[in-house]
Structure formats: C-alpha cells, structure tokens
Hints:
Blueprint: H1 2-18, H2 25-42, H3 53-65, E1 80-84, H4 92-98, E2 103-108, H5 111-123, E3 129-133, H6 136-142, E4 147-153, H7 158-165, E5 169-179, H8 185-197, E6 200-210, E7 217-226
Parallel strand pairs: 1-2, 1-4, 2-3, 4-5
Antiparallel strand pairs: 5-7, 6-7
Amino acid sequence: MNDDRQSFFAAFQKAVAALGLTIDAAQQEGMFAHYLQVVQTNKQFNLTRITSPAEAAVKHYADSLSLLAMPGFSPDRRLDVLDLGTGAGFPAVPLAIMCKVWTITAIDATGKKAFFVQMAAKSQHLLNLHVRHARGSDLTREGDSSFDVVLLRAVAKLEEGLAEAAPLVRKGGCVVFYKTPHIESTEIENAKRFAGQKGFKNSDHFDLSLPSPEGPIARRLIRYLKT
Length: 227
C-alpha cells in the first residue's frame, strides 16, 4: 500500500506541477482515496482498464484537472458544471475536490457507475458534487437544467457530443471536450459546421503535455462557446 501511495503521489505531483496548479495535502489525499475506491470496485465490475497507481495518477486525475490550466477557468470562480458521461468519476471527482465553489453534476447512463460515483462523493463529503443515473437527453426532456460548462471526456465524437450537450448549455457558456491532438481533421470540420447550427459561434483549443513514467502524454482540450 505504501508503495502504491508513493507511486501515485510522485506521478501526480509531477504532472500537476506541469499544469501550473497548486494542490494541498488534503486534496491529494482525496484523489488517492478515490483511486483506492476505483481499484476496489473494479474487482466487482469494470470501471477502468487503468489501475496502476502512477498511470492512474496521470491519465485520470491530473488529466481531469487539466481543465484548470486552460485560460478562463479557475477553482475560485463559481460555475455550474455538468460532467456528461462521468464513468468512474472523471473529471467530476478530481474537479469537485479541487474546486469547492463549483457546483458539479455528474451523470452516467450506466447505473452501477453512477451509484459508485454517488457513494464516492458521499464518502468524501463532496457536497458540491451531485450524481445521477441519467443521459443528457433525460435532462433535456426535464427542461430545467442548464449549465455554464458541459464536459465530455473520452465519451463521444465532437458532433455527437455537441448534439447531446447543446440543449444543456446556457448562453455565454461552453462545451469542453477532453481529446488528443491526433483528432482527425474531418471530425473537426464536421463539428465546426454542426456547432454553428447549434448556436456555438466560437471555438478554440488548448494543447498540453502531461509528464508520466511512460513518457509525455499529449492532450488537447477543445472548447465551443455558445452565444
């Protein structure tokens, strides 16, 4: 256990430092506690294929926090955020730990995953994180949900994600996709045309590199602004 802890913290601290973020001891402990919950639950049903401490620290936890390195985002600025397809709680749980003034809603279409994240949030007293077993279309039908930011991490192609997220973003808000720089140009062009039809008039992207024991990991955040 001590070896896992040391491996996790060493990789996590290096990756977070590369993002220019400052994280206190309690926040780091919260990340590791969630990691242990993920590993334990992963024995019962599949949450993630990434379970080694160092790999998870970078590819799940630091990667989730990379949003905070993107211009326009701060842990101290109040935001209503939706994590669309949260899986094991990424990026919702790391962001909820870091950004106490954010109100984060995490949804997933798989009931077991939503229940796991709900229990993880409860065990860590993350009062700013609300979890539901639902799809984006469920929130749209209810008609009373709108967010400053909708996040999609490794869950959909750009056009598909925009279609689901568009009704849930309020004017002046944005949709952010966690991607890699290797995204195909046809996907980007198709999404650009579709975004215009859905009221997204501007888009930008932010490239970054996360150091890991396996070597640098290239990531790209793509943002669509709704006007």
